[in-house]
Amino acid sequence: MTDTRDLDRRFVFHPFSMAQGHEQSGALMMAQSAEGCWITDDSGKRHLDSMAGLWCVNVGYGRERIADALADQARKLSYFHGFSSMATEPAAILAERVIAKAPDGFSKVFFGASGSDANDTQAKIVWYYNNARGLPNKKKIIARDRGYHGVTVLSGGLTGLPGLHAGFDLPLPMIRHVSAPHNIWTRNAEEDDAAFSARLAQELEDLILAEGPDTVAAFIAEPVMGAGGVIVPPEGYFAAMQAVLDRYDVLLIADEVICGFGRLGTWFGSERMGMKPDLMSVAKGITSGYAPLSGVLVGDKVWQVISGEGSAKYGAFGHGYTYTAHPVMAAAALANLDIVEEENLVERAGQMGDYLNDALAKAFADLPIVAETRGKGLMAAVEFARPTRDGWQKFDPGLQVAPRIVRAALQDGVISRALPNGDAVSFSPPFTVTAEEIDLVVSTVRKAAGAVC
Ligand code: PLP
């Protein structure tokens, strides 16, 4: 029989993995099949996946309906493209459906295949927009520390996690970062939500003024930060930030790659968190991970310039991927959205999210090294730190507990995730997760934390 573990160890270059360590030790888990929230590995052991893969399998694994949609579309029209005004039916139907769900003021969808390429497309759209308006110097993009926007040359720099820049000469020179709204590490002890939001908005304004408002094109933010630590902004944060952006003619890009399509209990995270973006990036939840598909949603204000001055100056829009508007991916998305709607999964994500966040808060309340349990909808995290007389102190990198907790929980059959910046364990289960499954996740991870700490 083929030893697939050996093949993996020898030939696969793994993302976000220790190069030599993987070659020596091989895969931590070899997933073979999955159903609902459960993955079965190559030894037959079942694991409860509290991360929905990488925050993406929103409708759960093993949906025949999406598998059928993929197969049917592959048989009917396996591929065609959207270049030079060519089109396919599934992409057209999907675009209308996405725009109908989006907040008011969105006109068009530009499809891609990943969250990273969506954010690269965003940068190009923003630059094109300002070039078309005769503002060639207005190009800088401001992101946030701990933000996660992908890993391509542009989006990898927007990502505000130093570990993703190291060794890659990122970020590119037109990218800047401001502080994350993190309760433990950036909020001052005496600050309420309004004061915290006002200070972060002031930091943004100071940066725009220091750079020169005529050089700043856009600000990009996730409604709730995901991979940077499930960071939920304080009440009033986006309103305060948005007032600054409006003052200096700076576009707001909402990175909805995790939050979009229901994870916060609303169709888009922007709605729940009070953002009024000009542009939105979506991916993951649009197909629940059954096929790689992303979208850039373009608001009317930007579209008017692209289709007006932009077309007049530059002719055809010179950007697109071979797989832009891929019909098989679009068919998967349509079947996925049918399931989300018919099973009221957006509402369910909100309800089960409350359940998850309550359960985590109760289970971890007594552990002295828990700095915070936090979340919104079906995104949650537990952050660990050392309590000191003056507040919290980060564990040294070699002594971080989150990776050890995640490993111990995996031994006990629960998949969670240690986040790359700081010492947090995160959760983002499928929207179909049950209360019993959440209880099992929380008790297993709590037990692992007790054993490790
Ligand atoms: N934006 C956000 C908010 C994400 O969470 C991710 C991935 O986790 C990305 C962008 C990048 O998406 P991809 O990994 O599909 O390139």
Model description:
- By secondary structure, this protein is an alpha/beta fold.
- It has 15 helices and 17 strands.
- The chain has 2 domains: 4-59 and 344-452, Aspartate Aminotransferase, domain 1 (Alpha-Beta Complex); 66-342, Type I PLP-dependent aspartate aminotransferase-like (Major domain) (Aspartate Aminotransferase, domain 2).
- It has helices at 4-11, 19-25, 52-55, 64-76, 89-101, 115-132, 155-158, 193-211, 237-247, 269-273, 300-314, 327-342, 345-364, 402-411, 435-452; strands spanning 31-35, 38-41, 46-49, 106-112, 140-144, 175-178, 216-221, 251-255, 279-282, 294-299, 370-376, 379-384, 386-388, 391-393, 414-415, 417-418, 424-427.
- The protein has a 7-stranded mixed sheet, sandwiched between helices. A 4-stranded mixed sheet has the order 1-2-3-15. A 4-stranded antiparallel sheet has the order 11-12-17-16, covered by helices on one side.
- Pyridoxal-5'-phosphate binds at residues 54, 114-116, 119, 148-150, 222, 226-227, 255, 257-258, 283.
How large a portion of the residues is in β-strands, by DSSP E? 15-25%
Task: Examine the secondary-structure arrangement and name the CATH architecture of the largest domain.
Answer: 3-Layer(aba) Sandwich
Which cofactors or ions or other ligands sit in this model? pyridoxal-5'-phosphate
Mean pLDDT figure: 97
The span between the termini is 41 Å
Write down the CATH class of the largest domain.
Answer: Alpha Beta
Which word captures the global form? globular
